[in-house]
Amino acid sequence: MVAKRAFLPQVSKKSTGVDSYRAFISYSHAADNKLAPRLQRGLHQLAKPWYRAPSFRVFRDETSLTATPAMWSSIERALSASEFFILLASPDSARSKWVDREVAWWLAHRSPQQILIGLTNGELTWDDRTGDFVQDPAAPTLPKRLQGVFTEEPRVIRLSWARTENHVSLRNGRFRDAVAEFAAPLHGRSKEDLVGEDLRQQRRMTWWRNAAIGSLTILALVASVSSVQFFAQRNTAREQRDLAVSRQLAAESTRIVDTQPENAILVGLESLNAAGKEHRNPPTGLVTGLARLQHASERYSIAHTLSVSYSSDGRKLALGEESGTIRLTDPRTPDRSDQTLRGHTSGIRNMAFSKDGRLLASTGDNSVRLWSVATGRPYGAAIKLSEPGNGVAFSPDGKLVASGGVDKAIRLWDVATGKPRGKPLQGHTDAVTDVAFSPDGRLLGSAGADETVRLWDVTTGKPRGKPLQGHTDDVQDVEFTPDRKILASASMDKTVRLWDVTTGKPRGKALQSHVNTVNALAISPDGKTLASAGGDMVHLWDTDTGRPQGLPLVGHTDNIWSLAFRPDGKQIATVSGDKALRLWETAVTPSISQALTGHTGEVFDAEFSRDGKRLATASGDGTVRLWDPLTRRPLGKPLHGHTGWVIGVAFSPDGSLVASAGEDRTVRLWNVATGRPHGKPLIGHMNWTTRVDFSPDGRLLASASNDKIVRLWDVATGRPFGSPLRHDRGVLGVAFSPDGKTLASADNTVRLWDVASGRQIREPLNSNAQSVNSVAFSPDSKMIASADNTVRLWDVASGRQIREPLEGHTGTVADVTFSPDGKLLASSGIDGTARMWEVPSGQPVGPPLTGHETTTSQVEGYAGAVNQVVFSPNGKQLATAGDDTTVRLWNPEFSGWADYGCEIVNRNLSRAEWRHLAEGLPYHRTCPEAGR
């Protein structure tokens, strides 16, 4: 099995990751490893209520790094995502090559006016005559690159005193003033304003704490009068204290969920534990984290490792370290070395086991080395290379080893003798980054920094056809599928491509989901799944269709350099710059939320059949799809017929038909059993059709359109039923009442119609909204819910609004629906969330459901809409349809938060993580049965 890794020597283009930071802290780890995190924490917490998440993030690398290209890409991403540069200046940082490189990047891409200097040691004096700092030439305090770059004296905050201070926090007035100096430009507020606000927040916190203590004291005094009352009030005080702690942890969980989903889950579970049984609404961070993580994984702390590979029997796992050491381990206990192989003088960029598992080949320095797996000793002499090697692979029969490297050539070596087999394979115009044999051993695939993939005839050493061109940046990795039909390639252009080996042509479009360089790929032993690593996550793809398989594997906190499938396909190993090995289960773990993937455009609508056995979806890709909600698999092929977006979908009451509404102005009926059209399209609307709904008896179909009309159709004949129902604006929602007597429709008002006569019932229900996007009847037909910028409830009999609107969404509400028992209401919106509400009280139930991925939009506040929300007929599932091309199935009654959270994370917070995320609380293991 071939190890998959990044081609480390080249990091040439700036990342475009989604993270953003208000400031980047550059510092010497040797000098300021204690002060830097305190400054970062202070900037996050200054002038902030304790229960709220910080208003911005500040980047600080948390480990002592060596200046290698492998680590630089992650630092470069953080720099490019930062608005300000905070330099902790000292003679140590002035000598640091790492700090120098960060300063150089900032000066090349940003303004010196955005640099803030914290002086932690040494002296800095500004000379107005020269317009520069005066420094000691023998021990400068600033990197040389900063000489002469400032047009005026920059802000310098003196922090040398803080190095020897015992208590450095915002409770220290001197440190609070220093933090406020840094924070003022970051917030765009004055230092005095920030300090005043922070003192007010501290006084509030002190008041609340003293109030709690006072309450307990008073209760103690009252105990002499009534011990029963004392205990009741004491318990109330404790409950309020626990709720406050729970809210603080919930805010922290939500704050870190995008960057640390596993920690967000663990902190969210602690929030639940602190709240007690009466207040167990899960925090947003917990729900979001659990929705995003579908694959359980084991995490092991290891040395910085660049490559990983399984032996063919799966009993050995090889880890190639940056130090040049190779460790052979048992995959069941990978943090313990069975054997240590030493000989290389620099990082191991690639490794491969022979098919029989007897030998291991490795490269990274100016050599290829073969090792006996049984003894851990070298197998023959090292094979010398003129320049560093990048790729290595065994032929299937184990007689040849192929290598490729910086010298642009591919070489074949005889395993028995260690001598070259034939002449070098020449053709690449830049470094060869990877090589791979086809399963039959007749072909060799190669990847190059020249942006090409090449195929070679192993027998003749000649190229097989022309170079495979399509990538727009260095190609990092190649691998054949087991049937030899496809060659996959991964590139720094953030894509994966599939090539037809016979024709040399691309198979479909490039696979695009990564936002960073794709460093490595691997194909499952059955050839059905391709795994690609880019940035800190792994994406899974269907090799036949090129479509994503579920959600990415999320958990690493730095670039993933290498990955490999276990030979049985049930596990994926990954190694990363975060110094962690992760072993992922490829099987999806049952979750609070599961994604249905397959559509290639936004999903606008989703509806369950009355028996709950099918789910129909309508998409901007022009198709209707049918799904099995239990298995989450498609039923049959997509239904093609519309010539544009499909916007609405509905099942007939008996489940035999599906109706769809589309951009092409038509309504179409489909036979569920055959997937074929049922009759001709229903034509009559003059603009987009937006929604459809069957009458409860299945005889009528209502369609809404942007042409300001609702039409009723006779399902049996396909002809119009009665006259059009006219509106003043485009109609976005339509729904029959459960008793079939009334039809509700929505433009910027809600109109009620008598189905039998086609007449409007009273004046429209008017909330002065710009548009009403959805309407739904309660199961007893007595209430209507409508969606505009809020959720509103109306009494059908009187036409009056029931209570104040339900507010919580931060943008337009797209859809609304009742649960089958009428006790709950669900809504979805363009803020990317779905929410649930208690109908009797109007109170929210739990946090927003936030599993759908954010999409790119130019509309402010538009996170990627959740367009539709619907309960299953038994109320045990909630489906949401999103702009991220997926449908998600939720369990609205999910109660096993702790069990599932611990199963998916399978670890505990370290003591260091606990101190940072749950400061002030006594440490304990959230998941007692899990690892660290």
Automatic annotation (TrEMBL):
Which controlled-vocabulary keywords does the entry list?
Membrane, Repeat, Transmembrane, Transmembrane helix, WD repeat
| UniProt domain TIR: residue ranges | 24-108
**Entries under Pfam families matching the protein:** TIR_2, WD40
Quote the InterPro entries the UniProt record gives.
Answer: TIR_dom (IPR000157), Toll_tir_struct_dom_sf (IPR035897), WD40/YVTN_repeat-like_dom_sf (IPR015943), WD40_PAC1 (IPR020472), WD40_repeat_CS (IPR019775), WD40_repeat_dom_sf (IPR036322), WD40_rpt (IPR001680), WDR55/POC1 (IPR050505)
Read off the PROSITE patterns from this record.
WD_REPEATS_1, WD_REPEATS_2, WD_REPEATS_REGION
Choose any GO biological process term that the UniProt entry carries and state it.
signal transduction
Q: Where are the transmembrane segments?
A: 210-232
Entry-linked CDD domains: WD40
Name assigned to this protein: TIR domain-containing protein
Q: Which organism is it from?
A: Streptomyces poonensis
